[in-house]
Amino acid sequence: MSVQDHFRQCKNLGDYLKTLPSNVLQELFSYPAACLVIFRESLTKLAQLYVLRILYADQVLPSPVLKNWVSTSYVEDYKLAVNTLNSLKIWNESAMPGGLTGWMLNQTFRHNLKIGLLGGGAPWTKSKQMEADLKPKAVSDLDAYALQRWEALLHYLADTERAQQSESVSRDAVVTLAHAGLMETEGERLPTITKEGFQFLLLDTASQVWYFVIKYLETVDSKGLKLSECLAFLFALSMDTIGKDYSTDGFSEPMQQFMQNLREFGLIYQRSRKAGRFYPTKLAENLFSRTRRIALDTDKQKTGFIVVETNYRLYAYSDSELQLALVGMFTEFLYRLPNVVVGVLTRDSVNQAMRNGITSEQIITFLRIHAHEEMNKTSGNLSNPLPPSVNDQIQIWETERNRLKYTPGALYNQFLTHHDYEVVRDYAQKIGVLAHANDQRRTVVVYLSGHDEVRKFWKKHSKGG
After folding, report:
1. CA–CA gap between residue 342 and residue 362 (Å, rounded)
2. Percent of the chain residues topping a pLDDT of 90
3. Of the candidates 165, 181, 256, 192, the residue with the CA atom closest to the CA atom of residue 214
4. For the segment 202-230, what is each residue's pLDDT rounded down to a tens digit?
């Protein structure tokens, strides 16, 4: 599945949970934090209302009664709410006397959602017994650490000569990058970035983290971890307080290893594996939020660094090798000064990016997100400060590439007689696989999907003739 397909099918937490097996969902319902996050971030407003209204109804409620709670003008919202609650196994259908069907909340979900909403139950960490940290981490320090770790991962992906950076990225991270389709490996050669990898690099940080973590979770079974336990940890992590430390006591050895992976990705901070405490970062804070926005309190994140002029000149005010590598994917650099790199957007540079799988929308979005504050001040369009001529030209260059559509096919020629040519042509047209035919040159082109069938027909016809 490509990066774009992933975001079409798995845009939010609700979409992701619908892809999980029923037994994993049932295991998740045993964690109060998981139930609370699912309630907040996966359900529509109407579905949330249904859950709250029947939370203390310990009996099956007839479906006509539930439907009557919604006016006829909101019937589509009702169908969406019912479908969501069904697909997430939050409520179960039951038969009632008289042939009616009814609904009842999943008992495990009900019990633990009450705990999540009202409090109670056992704490998820043993932080109360933990001594105060003698060197507590400030939020700004955590933000800088998260950005450093995440950029190390991106730099490994973007840098084709990654041998020098290989020590900063673990084998688990490389396996996840390959599993996600962002890199490919052949034998003992260094991994190489794929088209999906180029698309991934131009996403915003929140979308990158979401995609990468989901792909990482697909690999936890092979590491001896339970998917439900890892998800529950991430759910609890997303509701923790940034700047507060939490104890690692009581977690199993596999979960300790899971924390080390999160530490490498920048979702948590630990001084060392034996430190006995960890700090969540903002990369984990809004991981499951509907908005999924990440605002790190660092100078690099707070200010844009790109200025684009109407003559397609681009100025990148940055000394970050990663940021310059990303800009260089669609820009022709002219010269580099101590604090700025000057380049130009050309047809060739943009087409090269598009050959790598990057779309015009991704380029424009990247330039818009990282636009320098001076561009935002001078532009009349705050939502897109790019000059309209540049915006339109990038889209035109993509349109030029899409004028021709390449379709794999098979060519049939060198017919001995015109009759033989007509037989093959008519048969291909009859079964709907004829792509092109030229009567004068006696050539037939069929779609690759029908090549085997046409070939068998031609062999049979030749022998019969």
Report:
1. 21
2. 44
3. 181
4. 888 888 999 999 999 999 998 889 999 99
What is the rounded average pLDDT for all residues in the chain? 87
**Beta pairing class for 268-269 and 192-193:** unpaired
The position carrying tokens 């971890």 is 225
Q: In the predicted model, is pLDDT for residue 163 greater than 50?
A: no
| C-beta atoms surrounding 394 within 10 Å | 24
CA proximity to 263, closest of 224, 275, 231, 320: 275
C-alpha atoms less than 13 angstroms from C-alpha of 395 in its C-beta half-sphere:
10
Query: For 109-137, how does the pLDDT look when each residue is reduced to its tens digit (9 = 90+)?
Result: 999 999 999 987 777 776 667 788 888 89
Instruction: Identify the residue whose tokens are 């915006």.
Output: 391
Distance between CA atoms of residues 450 and 465, nearest Å: 22
Q: How far is it, in rounded angstroms, from Cα 344 to Cα 315?
A: 8
> Which residues are within 8 A (CB) of 330 and not within 5 positions of it... i.e. 6 or more apart?
345, 349, 350, 352, 353, 358, 363
Q: How far apart are the C-alpha atoms of 8 and 154, rounded to whole Å?
A: 23
Phi and psi angles of residue 341, each rounded to the nearest 5 degrees, phi first:
-115, 130
Contacts of 62 (CB under 8 A, 6+ apart): 96, 100, 101, 102
Count of beta carbons in the 10 Å neighbourhood of residue 378 = 10
Please work out, in degrees rounded to the nearest 5, the angle formed at the alpha carbon of residue 290 by the alpha carbons of 145 and 183. 55
The residue whose two tokens read 């580099």 is 336
Residues 392 and 396: their CA atoms lie apart, in Å, by 6
pLDDT band for 39, please (50, 70, 90 cuts): very high
For a pLDDT cut of 70, what percent of the chain falls above it?
91
For residues 93 and 101, the answer to whether their CB atoms sit within 8 Å is yes
Say yes or no to pLDDT of 280 above 70: yes
DSSP secondary structure letter of residue 63: H
d(CA 202, CA 359) in angstroms, rounded, equals 10
Residue 277 and residue 130 in contact, taking contact as beta carbons nearer than 8 Å: yes
Our measurement of the distance from residue 392's CA atom to the centroid of its chain's CA atoms, rounded to an integer in Å, reads 27
Three-state secondary structure along 132-190? CCCCCCCHHHHHHHHHHHHHHHHHHHHCCCCCCCHHHCCHHHHHHHHHCCCEECCCCCC
pLDDT above 70 for 8: no
Please check whether residue 125 is in contact with residue 246, taking contact to mean a CB–CB distance below 8 angstroms.
Answer: yes
